[in-house]
Known about the structure:
By secondary structure, the chain is α/β, with parallel strands linked by helices. The protein contains nine helices and eight strands.
Amino acid sequence: MDLIISKNSFLVFDLDDTLYKEIDFLKSAYKHIAFILEEEIGDYIYEEMFELYQSGEVVFDVIKEKYKFEMSIKDIVSEYRYHGPMINMDDATESFLTILKHHKVKMGIITDGRSESQRNKLNSLGILEWFEDIIISEEFGSEKPSIENFKHYESKFEGFSFYYFGDNFTKDFVSPNKLGWQTIGLLDQGENIHKQYHDLGEEYLPKHEINSFSEINLKFENP
Length: 223
């Protein structure tokens, strides 16, 4: 799809499963936890943990029961949420954002989650400072699909045309659609943590769908 960018364009992104694959955060956390537990239990159990996840098991409860380690479930969950993740954008996403940054296009983030976790992810990706404004639900006080999360941008950046990129059809697009934003949905390639539902009302669906950011042809007005 063609995307015409002017000096009044503002591009807003979801984070998890949009700018990077959330499954990579999960894998990073499991490796981190397996490393912490290795000295006590004498085994590196990352692969076992991931197989339990794929089987739909309550991973931390199962390994706690099996290995009887001292670390509490609460502390394991904390390590999961707040570790410094080893995650990356794919080449297409990194190229897309880099081009926008080069052209000084204004960008923002609207993401649900805990402040420390989400900022750790952005830091790991190396793009925290690329955005004019970042809304994280824990900091802002409401989660998507609250329309207030999106109105914040309209109030703070008057006169701009807004685009929103996300992946979760249940909550990502209904509010920006109501506000007349252009909405672009990144389709699940079989790795998303949360299932994508396509059988929702039209108001929930993005106006455009892409498999990758490489499918967007950026055209800049008045370069």
